[in-house]
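=== Structure Prediction Worksheet ===
Name of assembly: unnamed complex
Input type: mixed (protein and possibly other molecules)
Chain count: three
Listed entries:
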Amino acid sequence: MNIVIYIAIVLISIGSFLAFMRFVKGPTAADRAIALDTLSVIGIAGLVLLGYLFQRYIYIDLALVYAVLGFIGTIVIARYIEKAL
Amino acid sequence: MSAKTISPSRYFYTFFIVFLIWYAFTTSLQPAEIITGIVLSLVVAYITVVNFDCCDPILITPSHIIYFIQYFLVFLVALVKANFDVAKRVINPKLPINPGIVSFETKLKNNFAKMVLANSITLTPGTLTIDVVDDKFYIHWIDVTTENKDEIYKEIAEPFEKVLLKIYGSSK
Amino acid sequence: MDTLNNILEYIGLFFVLLGSIFLFLGALGIYRMPDLYNRLQAGTKASTLGAMSMVLGIGLMQPGWLIKLIVIILFIGISNPLSSHALARASYKSGIRPFFKKKVDDYEEEVESEKGKMESV
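=== Predicted Assembly ===
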């Protein structure tokens, strides 16, 4: 049954690589912000998954904090793009 | 805005919502956490009470609970459909898209209900809310099939708005 | 009791697998789509459901954590569409126009009139 979790880890690793490629390519700042947002959502899911794999509850708290910070970060970037570019 | 006098119940309501969020994030019953939460919520409520005009309390009756469940089910079905729709488009080597920005007018007046509607539209098949100006919703649609206003409304908003109207009514 | 736990575990694994597939598809959509708005479309929907279903799957496999995981699910469900909506509006207002096969754009008018108002002030 652990094999399923390893498959999931491989899939989300490929996914985060693709999102990272978009982050590198751009072409605009907003595209990078989208890629970053997706990366942070993948990161949240990955943290929860790792928390289960290692049986550490603290990873769940970490995922929650990361979710809040990622959301605030994206909103700030959006505000910045709207007013300054 | 700030000249408006704020009633004590308004303060209490803001405090209550802020504390609820704190509690949801900590989910612990240890006295230290609760006390910290109360103190911080008081400070945050004092600062933000002026701008806190979303989520006005509505009277919840038993029939509302049925509508909430109904809304949740409608939403869940749409969300799953949306994902298979996206998956289909992304995997297809030809990328079958025909995007455009359409608009429609909502009958909802309540701000919170509008937010719920906008979020739901974003998560349903092929649509993304770009902006809400008063009653007008601007939607980015990945596959524009019609430009007729009524059909747009029927296609995008009706299943959600029908239920939301039952909960919030068309009054403010 | 043991069989119940086993069943829950298998359902949980199913959700985890489903979630990882959707997360992957969301990232693929971000990579493949031709313009910003379509990227948002693919990215938001797929990654939201993907993350929600993966977290729910873990919650079923580890019922003691379920409450906190449900908080995470709710937060993702509310915050993700909000942030994509903010990004879409910001980039439209900063002048990035969507890719069209056939132009259908009701929003342009609104943004232009708003710009006019800002300039006259």
